[in-house]
């Protein structure tokens, strides 16, 4: 799906690494521009770009379903939502110092701890990592086709083996709808008048 | 239907929620909510009995066992106990909500309010019954998202800001939890808690699992508002609608504590958490600071709801203190307090809801002389206040008794003294309210023409007040539930 | 934007294809990438496009807010309903194999089809409701 | 190989931290949600990286292939993406309401307005 299988393994490996590094740098650049940009419309577009880039990256990592969803949701729905919000709240961000010491410290410490945690993580892409050897993974890949009759293992895991998680996910989306309706329906004037209560 | 009890526990409120959203009629939605929350309580009671007669129950969702890659529901004595706490509060608060919500929430939004309320309940129950790490995250988000929306419904505009702060902090917490789960998964390939408990000790010494442990702990502590990660809580409790405060204050943080216990004892194992990671050394001082500083802050509050919110933070400190002692007495104290505090705080916040119903305010200045005008409401408040302090013959006394015993067992007598001292601080802030309500002259301003709250509010409030006294006199049921919960946890741990 | 004829006609031409593509994504999910969630988003995207070009009031005539809310709730009921159904048929919750008493694999197929339909319905409804809430605010009610 | 795998993971961690920084340091409420999005999306990349097998292919069974990447992280992240968009939708609706109630979406200005009460 991603590459022509006939190519030599080593050549393919090098190309994958190169694209990897390229995409990751693009992601980093986008994220850094988001930090500095004051115009929120630009930020919304950059977030969309960030999502599209990560979707591309997901494709490279064989996660086609995830890539599809990220492109549809991150670059589509989120951006539309963001633009809808900005049309209501305005798109200028107040100037503030870009470097703030305390948050920077928290973030650095968190990042360093995470990096420390990855020191013993199984190497990237090896077939004998515990993730791939665990009985559930083996079961999914070997039994799914005759237990559920689906060639797409992601679908069978999503809808059947871990179908309950997906029900939870559907409920989360429904919860978001209930929440948005609770917060956004009704007339604006009443709400502004109602804010003085209890003062 | 008996073997399906674990899944029905979650499905009853979860299925009722979309029905509430569909009916669009506040009263009908309320009826659905009451029916399903009582149903959930009945199921929890059945589960409690089953667990105590035949031991932990397991349920494979979709018919796939954990080794086939399915999601497993697993309820042991601790889970059954927490289910009782959550559903009890749910069953009492839902009837209460009718009058309270009619006053505080727009008519057009009432049906959706109950939908969100039930989703929150379903989410919390889902966290408790599940035996799968990722499923915890999914249900955590169901309960959190509905909680954000419910808090944002407060009439005061500061409710919006409180809700937003909670959303940001809660999402950071959830993301930390996801990172932690991810690291566990990368190292073992498993998401099932029981399976993780087997696989984790087999791993060679590494630097990843401690980091996963840290991220999970910090993530959950954000959700349960342990000092210093508590900033979101006071505003959220203060500005949310009364029924929401009563429900969330008595359940959401309790379930987060349950998750913490699950992680420490079931997933990582007690030896790893307390001996290798030295968890007690971090949690003990944090909890002491939380108890002391938050009690102190509570004394200086003029908004009674905010005062109780800070008191909640102190109570969370007590629960964490019991956990950090790492002894069966300490744990029993924590789990008992989990229940007792839920009952006490539910009662207190519901009494305040009654005040809110009549006065539209819970500022101390507006409550002068209220004791004569709303004797039943303030009576319930007084009972709850006694419970909070830990006066004998109230539920709060039992848990504090165990806590002090647990501290003395470990030879930590300064801790025991501090627990007593902070109880005096609770006396100080409760006394402030009592003095205003009973011993100040009514200036004849705000509350001059107010009367007792309607029965629809008083009956649920007094139910919890009576329970608070009942479990202070006859604590057999709660101590039995708590000690068997401790036994099930410690049994797995060792 | 609402008066530009090119946009209006292009929208008219494209909308059915977007809907068709959503259905393709929905039913091809067994064999390739895709499924209820992605399909729901694409389905909603068609209405979002329509609302952007023809105005939100027109879109509300085609798909009223109430119907979208109904979809949002209905999907959850479909999903959980499948679970209840398998329970009543003697299996566990969401144990699709019991949907077909003779052929468990066929039951799985049916179950997955139904729950994906539930996901599609909810996601579609929710996305449209959220879009209406954001886009309709400040214009309709001021 | 291992140096390279760390490059991969560490890069993603840096991305996560950029998002986290935007989330906690920036005062604009919309920008915070953007930060949350970036933070979460980067966590997703971490998960998906763990499921990858070099030389493997997408987990859609076909006679042509023998090595497949792990489908489970994909499923988890599909769920997490949906949870993420649900959270941002709710967060943004709160931002809209805050703007209507306070007239601003800058955190420090809102805090000042609350304190002056």
Keywords:
heterotetramer; A: 199 residues; mainly alpha; Four Helix Bundle (Hemerythrin (Met), subunit A); 2 domains; 0% strand; globular; disordered C terminus; C: 142 residues
Textual characterization of the structure:
- The complex is a heterotetramer of chains A (199), B (494), C (142) and D (117).
- With 199 residues, chain A is mainly α.
- Chain A has 2 domains: 1-97, Four Helix Bundle (Hemerythrin (Met), subunit A) (Up-down Bundle), CATH 1.20.120; 127-186, no CATH class.
- Chain A contains 9 helices and no strands.
- Chain A has helices at 9-36, 40-60, 64-89, 101-118, 130-133, 135-147, 153-161, 163-184, 188-194.
- The longest helix of chain A has 28 residues, at 9-36.
- With 142 residues, chain C is mainly α.
- In chain C, α1 runs antiparallel to α2 and α2 crosses α3 (56-62).
- The model of chain C has no long low-confidence stretch (mean pLDDT 88).
- Chain C has one domain.
- Helices cover 75% and strands 0% of the residues of chain C.
- The radius of gyration of chain C is 18 Å and the shape is elongated.
- Chain D has 117 residues and is mainly α.
- Chain D is elongated, with a radius of gyration of 20 Å.
- The model of chain D has no long low-confidence stretch (mean pLDDT 88).
- At the A-D interface, α1, α2, α3, α4 and α6 of A face α1, α2 and α3 of D.
What string gives the helices and strands of chain B in order?
HHEEHHHHHHHHHHHHHHHHHH
Low-pLDDT runs of 5+ residues of chain B are none
Global outline of chain B: globular
The largest sheet of chain B is:
2 strands, antiparallel
Helix count, DSSP H or I runs of 4 or more residues of chain C: 5
Identify the most extensive interface between protein chains: A-D, 100 and 90 residues
Shape of chain C: elongated
Rg of chain B, nearest Å: 21 Å
Q: What separation lies between the terminal Cα atoms of chain C? A: 21 Å
Mean pLDDT of chain C: 88
* Strand order in the sheet with the most strands of chain B: 1-2
Helix content of chain C: over 70%
Give the number of DSSP strands of chain C: 0
Q: Briefly note the structural class of the backbone of chain B.
A: mainly alpha
> Which range best describes the helical content of chain B: under 10%, 10-25%, 25-40%, 40-55%, 55-70% or over 70%?
over 70%
Main β-sheet of chain C, in a few words?
Answer: none
**Beta fraction of the residues of chain B?**
under 5%
Sheet-strand content of chain C, in percent, reads under 5%
